[in-house]
Amino acid sequence: MLSGVAGSSWLGVCVVAEVVVWVDHAGGVVAKPSLELLTVARRLGDPVAVVAGEGAAGAAGVLGEHGAVRVLVSEAPEYGEFLVVPKVDALAAAVGAVGVPVAVLVSSGGEGREIAARLAVRTGSGIVTDAVDVEVGADGGPVAVQSVFAASFTTRSRVTRGVPVIVVKPNAAPVEAAPAAGAVENLDVVFSPAAVCARVVERAGREASGRPELTEAAVVVSGGRGVGGAENFAVVEALADALGAAVGASRAAVDAGWYPHSHQVGQTGKSVSPQLYIASGISGAIQHRAGMQTSKTIVAINKDPEAPIFDLVDYGVIGDLHTVLPQLTDDINHRKN
């Protein structure tokens, strides 16, 4: 048995466990949360990265640089022509190719959660969603850590049936280089009849803002009802740009038409888990808290000292955001220069 490596030994032969990691990419450019998953996977065994879609082979190099010992690649056109099921077929084929992986790791997001859920149903396996960390259990298997009830409690869970499928939130682990073999193998995928039931008829690119993707950002600055109008979001954006952060918005701000719905943080918007979350003019209703409560450090700026958000934060500033944010932005820019 190799010390510190999950596996089993028989007649002096060590069999190292393999961990299947679903890779999210765009034309071979790997998303940051997928590289974080490789860091998590290395705690459990040898990461086997699964990449499907156009340009998948181009991702092999960076995956090998971050610990993938094998990269299973499939570039069939079905991944771009149809919705999520072909990707489920690919991930299921990868699990079959590995044999009995110690776990399957998928990054949390709209598509990732659906892929993971469908895989769990198909393989008869247990699933844990929105994990903020994954630890090695006493038996060498994965233990998923979740933050629940407005971050009031931390739970640790392990899957007892099938291959554990764990959906991990972005920013749960650092991106760490760890050069490995990164051997590229073609993945043989047989698409199920359901794979061609929903065809993609049109795609529309999003306007580039130059800021990080909201769900992947290490720092998020959000504005709420207290911002007072669409034109006033400029102070939120200025602070975000000073910090290299993404911009978020509460449901109230989005419903008022002050900021695009794609930036909404909350139960009916996007779930984020950055290292730093700054809530500006947000009261802290449970709908919003559900989307950001697992942030590592939370700062709130609100002129209402009774605002519920102050029950959740690490640091609170009682004051007018239109005064506080510009001062904070100026100070950050001064220190950077």
Automatic annotation (TrEMBL):
Cofactor: FAD
Superkingdom: Bacteria
Stretches assigned to coiled coil: none
Entry-linked Gene3D superfamilies: HUPs, TPP-binding domain
Positions that bind FAD: 225, 250-251, 264-268, 281-288, 302
Record SUPFAM superfamilies: Adenine nucleotide alpha hydrolases-like, DHS-like NAD/FAD-binding domain
Keyword match DNA damage: no
InterPro entries: DHS-like_NAD/FAD-binding_dom (IPR029035), ETF_a/b_N (IPR014730), ETF_a/FixB (IPR001308), ETF_asu_C (IPR014731), ETF_asu_C_CS (IPR018206), Rossmann-like_a/b/a_fold (IPR014729)
Electron transfer flavoprotein alpha/beta-subunit N-terminal domain ranges (all copies): 19-204
Keyword terms: Electron transport, FAD, Flavoprotein, Transport
PROSITE patterns, sorted: ETF_ALPHA
Example GO BP: fatty acid beta-oxidation using acyl-CoA dehydrogenase
Cofactor note: Binds 1 FAD per dimer.
Transmembrane segments: none
Molecular function terms from GO: electron transfer activity; flavin adenine dinucleotide binding
Pfam families reported for this sequence: ETF, ETF_alpha
Subunit (UniProt): Heterodimer of an alpha and a beta subunit.
Family under the similarity heading: Belongs to the ETF alpha-subunit/FixB family.
PANTHER family recorded: ELECTRON TRANSFER FLAVOPROTEIN ALPHA, ELECTRON TRANSFER FLAVOPROTEIN SUBUNIT ALPHA, MITOCHONDRIAL
Function in brief: The electron transfer flavoprotein serves as a specific electron acceptor for other dehydrogenases. It transfers the electrons to the main respiratory chain via ETF-ubiquinone oxidoreductase (ETF dehydrogenase).
Name this polypeptide is given: Electron transfer flavoprotein
Organism: Streptomyces clavuligerus
Organism classification: Bacteria, Bacillati, Actinomycetota, Actinomycetes, Kitasatosporales
